[in-house]
Task: structure prediction
Amino acid sequence: MPLIVGQSPPIQEILEIVGMVAQSTDTPVLILGETGSGKELIAQSIHYRSPNFKGPLVTVNCAAIPNELIESELFGYEKGAFSGAQSSGKAGLVEEAANGTLFLDEVGDLNAEAQAKLLRFLESGEYFRVGGTTSHKVKTRMVSATNKDLFAMAQAEQFRLDLYYRLAVVKVEVPSLNRRQEDIQPLAKYFLEQFSRKFNKSFQVTGVFRACVA
Result:
């Protein structure tokens, strides 16, 4: 189970939302926040607190996969679908996430073709592999995350508005640390403990927060 460190009201509110949405097996969740704000931890927490925890958690960094490959990576491909394709075809990451959770990080970087296919999957639970004519059906929860303003992108016709609404059935906004300063001290203490164990050091807290490392 991932550990979310914090005592500020925004973090406590997020944990309440996570607890509620985790009771569902398929409600899509969109997590918004700056890079490094803990969006992946929120996604992991939703998965491991849900009935889907026995299934896989498949994480996809949409920004790290070339545009020409993202569709086949997500939905797989059939034999001979394109030059260089495996002779036996390949299952996609959506299929690998069956009965679990598919986490799409940096979802705002998906190209138009992948957005259209993802929308169809969210609407029907069905998809076609690249080069295929047979539909496949998979049940999985879709959790997505981005540091971009998807609604503004949709208004500028850079992201599908209908897909935005499908992804954001439940929306979780993770505030940056400068908006929850009560969490700075618990986080600093947590990381000091982690690295002290890693490097076989010890420390003690003195005063308001001064760490003495030995």
